[in-house]
Design a protein that fits this description.
The complex is a heterotrimer of chains A (about 500), B (about 130) and C (about 575). Chain A has 19 helices and four strands. Chain A is mainly α and about 500 residues long. In chain A, the strands form two sheets. Chain A has a two-stranded antiparallel sheet with strand order 1-2. In chain A, strands 3-4 form a two-stranded antiparallel sheet. The longest helix of chain A is centred in the last third of the chain and has 32 residues. Chain B has a domain of about 60 residues. Chain B is built from seven helices and one strand; from the N terminus they run αααααβαα. Chain B starts with 11 loop residues before the first helix and ends in a 6-residue tail after the last helix. Chain C is mainly α and about 575 residues long. Chain C is built from 21 helices and three strands. In chain C, α3 runs antiparallel to α9 and α12 runs antiparallel to α14. The chains are: A mainly alpha (about 500), B mainly alpha (about 130), C mainly alpha (about 575). At the B-C interface, α3, α4, α5, β1 and α6 of B face α4, α10, α12, α14 and α15 of C. β1 of chain B pairs antiparallel with β3 of chain C, so a sheet runs across the interface.
Chain lengths: ~500, ~130, ~575
Amino acid sequence: MEILSLFPAWLLEQGPAFVIVLPLLMGAITAILPSRTLAWWTALVVTLLCTVTAFALLLQVYSEGASLYTMGGWDPPHGISLVIDALSAPVLFLIAAMAVVTVIYAMPATIAEVEPKKRAPFYAAFLLCFAGLMGMVVTGDAFNVFVFLEVSSISTYALVAMGAARDRRALTAAYNYLIMGSIGATFFVIGLGFMFMETGTLNMADMSRILADLDGGSRVAKVGFGFIIIGLGLKLAMFPLHTWLPGAYAYAPTKVTVFLASTATKAALYLLLRFTFTVFDPSFDYVAVVLKYILIGVGVVGMVFASLQAIFQTDARRTLAYSSVAQVGYMLLGVGLATAAGIAAGYLHLLNHAIIKGGLFLAMGAFWYRFGITRIQDFSGLSKTMPWTMGAFMLSGLSLIGVPFTAGFVSKVNLTIAAADKGWWWAVGVIVVTSVLAIIYIGRILLAAYFGSPPLIDGQPAKKNEAPLMMLIPMWFLAVLSIAVGSNILGLGDDFVMASERAAALLTGQGG
Amino acid sequence: MTENNTPDTLTKKELEERQNAHPFAVPFLWLGNQKVIDNFIWFPVLGMIAMIALGIVYPQKHPAPWDVVPGSWAIIGFAAYTFIVLCAKPLTALLARDEDYYGEGGLPDPEYSTEHTAHEHGGDHHD
Amino acid sequence: MIDIFQVNPGLWLILAGVICAFVPKGDLGGWARKALVIGAPIFAGIMITQIYTSQEVLAGKINIGGLELTTLRIDNLSMVWGYLFCLIGVLNGIFGLHEKCRITDSSALIYAGAAIAGVLSGDLLTLFLFWELTAISSVFLIWKGGEHAYAAGIRYLALHVLSGVLLLAGAIMYANANGGDYMFNNIGLDVPGGWLILLAIGIKCGFPFLHMWMQDAYPKASITGTVILSAFTTKMAIYALARGYVGTDILIYIGAVMTCFPVFFALIENDLRRVLSFSLNNQLGFMVCGIGIGTELALNGVVGQVFVHVIFKSLLFMSIGAVMYRVGTAKASELGGLFRSMPFTAIFCLIGAGSIAAFPLLAAFVTKAMIISAVIYEASHGHPGLYVIAGMLLFASAGVMEHSGIKVPYFTFFSHDSGRRVKEAPWNMLVAMGLASALCIFLAFPWGGYQMLYSLMPYDSSGYTPYTVDHVVFQLQLLFAAISAFCVLKKLKLYPAEKRAEILDFDWTYRKLGLGIVRWIGAMWTRLGISMTRLRDRAISGTGRRLYQMFSPAGAMSEDAPSGLAAVLTAAMLILVLIFVYFVR
């Protein structure tokens, strides 16, 4: 590929380590930086560099195939390895790109939402969280996954708690998240312990090979698998383990919410795919059973229940948060189908949902920034007071519903077709019903905004008060991107579908 | 036109009624007269009797079983109507609730539902 | 270049509706919108005349992903609906001339366009698309009724979107069993998906227990909104029935029940627009029943009935709308004696009432009898059970006389004088009502009028003559008897006075019962959460408690399901997974 040759060779060679080490290092430095602006610039440059690297790695995977990076030259299984393949590269790029988007947005947003003296640590915690997520995705070592999971989680708790400057409830939410996240991580590490007992290795590829030799392994492996699934399930907000999510999303600073919503749960879902399909194998009885009954079961129940809960929320941020739980259900349904088409649809929804929900939360933050509102009833007339922000919100909202020519439509249609191919008409029904529910909860907000009249301030209708440009650019970028993916502008739709198909092909063992 | 040949015999009340009514309705104000209302019943009853008589002369070409009885449709009409109306009382007792039973009360939006405020506001509302 | 004869004429209205949405405010923009509202249906009607030939025209074929869609089909069945919708679109446009509201204009056009496009579509997928579009575009008309209409609009939307989903599901099953053929022809109940599609249609045309949305939403819409709504949705559903389910026996019984039950509700209802909605439901029953009979005579009757019904039902809604516009309410208990101030409206309302009650020389007289005759004919030719149905239809005819023929005009314009002296309706409303009244008279005119109506019918109708002595005489027997009964009951003071009340209907099950259950579950869930927290609080050590208190500042409300409950859930999920891993094969 032509573009690939523009990148220096060392970047491609050392890239996998670079994207982890750079933010980790700079995170530590940022914490002691004296100036908020300097911290911001650092974060921006770091995330930009990582994005470029991730993009290069992505191109490299598609042109030259998967690559294995060995830390310090120690070969696996003894050394730590980093794996870049068709499954990890798109998620890596997604996380890095979303980080850039949110950092740009953070410039005005943090001023409003975070206490002045906490702003530099805020960026430091953000970079650590970022490094953790990147590490979770690239590492090929199971124990490293746990380490990076904790790195990102612990910094996330701190980030959520920083929302206390605007809403004290952020503290409770952070506490809830802390408890649940710790339980999840503990479960995960217990599961890893079992797996180590069974296989004697922590390298994923090694583990996979030994498990296949053992034909799935003994009861120890089964218990280990159970713990890993639940541990990851907590992290990715699988229904009914999602209870930490609405609070954390609703009360964290907007930038954090956006970043979490579009990357953290996605990285956890990536790990779920990695473990169930490459470390374990759906051909083992117990994996197939869990896929078929547990993932599909909680996926479907979650889709319906969380959508219903979203409808009854009064706080718009919580509505979106519950909607996230419902969208996780779609992804789990796709994964649980365990066919190439199903996984591809789930993976595609993972990518699309990150873009869509990111856009929605960005707009939500802008509403708060200008008017300090989060309740749906206060949205009345926002289309007049903040037309551009509301416009971006509407586009992303339509995409979430799955209106034709939007990203949400593409992934929902693919998921529907995958379910129909398998003859699961009831699943098609559930998808349609939950889409209708999505119409209702998004429609409520849009109705208030477009048909309500602006509130009166001192007897005058509230004046037009648009969000700053630094906020508008990221949210319109995401809104337009979701339309571009849905309408296949610049071939973006095809690119996304291709990425998801290659990831699915890798998982179902058809090359890649 | 009607004002010109107003009979002098009208009471004050009747005059007032004429003035308030739509000009086109003036010749029909007798419809509100109590005597007319009381005696209106003769119109349908006589009509019904006439039609029953005609029905005997001109029977149904494709009779249903009940058409052997003279005036069958009149009987059906009368019985059905009475039955329906008499059902009102038990049904009301069973089904009627307070107007704000569902708690969705609120009045119809005056801007769209009536003329009253529409005239004051003029222009496009919610446009 | 697109061949405009390949374009479904409904799309022109939709296009006009979209343009309307962007026409700027102000007087000039207002008049431009009104010109579109009236001009677009006329143009669409002209297009239908240009495309229609005596044979079936299939056009507008589009190939999407291997599916061939026939977006336009005009034959002698769909053509009637096409013309009718264009006609009523114009009348509604005139009626709404005074209302300067962009949303109403735009959604009315899109809604009417979707209905026209729906009936003129040739396959089930295209039908589905417009089926949903009618629902989505029309809900704005309901919401324009004001705040109290919001919840009703949501319920309306939910039911109608559900109907569309059922239609789609049924269509896919039907086409799968049919070798991928989505053409919308006779479906019946014996094929896969047949019941689903029937259910979808049933929601739209108000089968018993699926009817509640109509009486719920229509009376709450804005004045013009109700008039527009009453014309399209349900008649589109009748078209779908007439296309797909001719001669399906179960429809006879459904239809008969549909004619009878609304009669009782209409009697005790106070809101006259809701009375008319029940009356609409009852009229649809006649049509459903006729489709169930399925003979040529019955189908002719159905088509004729649909045509005149749309006109006189709109006329009635218009007259009550005009009253509401001037008085501010449509509640029977608040009205009365209005003929003194709104004489023209009163006359038009009486014409509408006479038409729906099937007085000779007025519209329904020449059509409703066809359906009843068809039932009696079938009954006397080997299906004696159908006499019961014929009896029910006669009973319902008396019922129509009660609620629409007598109650609506009587309580509005006569009855005791409410003392209200208002202005006559605006000129544009009078024009619209006048045109509709003229049509009601013309389409039943014995010398050249009804023949035109009959020439629209899909089968040869020369064998049926409405104006025979026996028909006139027996119909008048029924009507005079009903009026006599009314007078007698009035004299005996047995006729119930109008009372303000909310009348419960089947929607109570979800508006009260369902909501109650959901609330109860919610309350229980909260309680469970609280007791779990309490359990945990007791269980955790002092350090944990201090930690908890540190992170839970006073005033910070914890609305989330607390982590105590969540932790228990996690354990439960783990056990569940382990059970599956171990025991399920």
